[in-house]
Amino acid sequence: MDTSTIQLHPSWLNHLKDEFQKDYMVLIKKKLLELKKNNIPFYPPGKFLFNAFNLTPLDQVKVVILGQDPYHGPNQAHGLCFSVPNSIKPPPSLINIFKELEDDIGKKIDFTNGNLEHWAKQGVFLLNTTLTVERSRPLSHQKLGWNIFTDKVISTINKSRENIVFILWGSFAQSKKELIDSNKHLILTAPHPSPLSAHRGFFGSKPFSKTNNFLETKQIDMIKW
Question: Is the pTM of this model over 0.70?
Fold first, then answer.
């Protein structure tokens, strides 16, 4: 894959450029081009594929929230896990995140606005471990090879940075713990915020205040959630 055509912030590209020459990434590009040629919708649109990376440069990452794959409905996914663009109704998992946030920090949240770009611009890296999905087919690209790329991303953050808060919701995100050095970073785990599991311990887990308390102890600017 030609890295000159990839819209990726230089701070990330410096560490990840070799990945774009590897066989798995060539196959990913081939698959996406086939879908486009056959008019099979997939999300997010190409310009948002690396949105998380461009809004949160590597040297500015303070927090990592891991999602699984993008929303699979039209106009929902824009390259930030759990986030939706302005004017798009927040999905149930995001509503539960907002409920926990409101309860955790006592701040009134606008439940109609699910755009989390303001988090990303403060250093919250909103990473899906699979970066694309076909319309109405959740997890359809889970075995495409994106996990190789995003495991490399997580490993890069782990190795090149210190005092990062990794927020891992659900068993899939928690399977990435082995890539993270808990002596260098804070790892917060809880059940996934989906309606199926949020009542099993996501509600009441207080990830937002725990994150800011940790950042404060490390003299790092806290997140304005």
Answer: yes
